[in-house]
Amino acid sequence: MSDRSGIFAGDDPYAIAQRWLGEAEATEINDPNAIAIATVDADGLPNVRMVLLKDIEGRDMPSGGAFVFYTNYGSAKAREIEQAGKAAFVMHWKSLRRQIRVRGLVEREEGPQADEYYASRSLKSRLGAWASRQSEPLSSRTALMAEVAKVTASHGPNPKRPPFWGGFRIKPLEIEFWADGAFRLHDRFRWRRQTLADEWEISRLNP
């Protein structure tokens, strides 16, 4: 499109997303990689929560391009993702006045890449992943800390990645890049495809 220039320029949406995230890392005070991820439960009731995006895989990667985050597979979000096979998220950077919206299909990442990321986390975070039964009722913080002490004693200073903890890879069918415009006349470009094998169709949207 002739007017898709400046911050919107490029023929690879993953490269644009990587560029925007890189710029946000220089301006956002906290967690520039935070995303609000949305799922639906078995009754179709939506859920949304903040998680940290850990990788934007380019189109030259084996995945063909994807957005990756990690969580407990027993959590509500993970159960809902696996039931539907789909998810959506938005990244919003207040300092840049930009956002990226993504909708797509989801697959697990529980191989060497997940092991490598888990090993890069602090020891306390690794032990916390073992101790937390994410999204399940908890009687008290004291009970949680007792569980942390228990797994510390049993798993030692170099715990392996729990089998119930790993990544999800969102492979997009739709990506929208949004930037604030004067008088609320925002710029929006949507990249859309019907299947993962299709070419992207790019449209400018009304604000």
UniProtKB/TrEMBL annotation:
Protein family membership: Belongs to the pyridoxamine 5'-phosphate oxidase family.
Keywords: Flavoprotein, FMN, Oxidoreductase, Pyridoxine biosynthesis
Complex formation: Homodimer.
Record-linked InterPro entries: Pyridox_Oxase (IPR000659), Pyridox_Oxase_CS (IPR019740), Pyridox_Oxase_N (IPR011576), Pyridoxamine_oxidase_dimer_C (IPR019576), Split_barrel_FMN-bd (IPR012349)
Location of the Pyridoxamine 5'-phosphate oxidase N-terminal domain: 23-152
Name of this chain's protein: Pyridoxine/pyridoxamine 5'-phosphate oxidase
Molecular-function GO term, any one: pyridoxamine phosphate oxidase activity
EC number(s) on file: 1.4.3.5
Organism listed in the record: Thioclava pacifica DSM 10166
Cofactor field: FMN
Pathway annotation from the record: Cofactor metabolism; pyridoxal 5'-phosphate salvage; pyridoxal 5'-phosphate from pyridoxamine 5'-phosphate: step 1/1; Cofactor metabolism; pyridoxal 5'-phosphate salvage; pyridoxal 5'-phosphate from pyridoxine 5'-phosphate: step 1/1
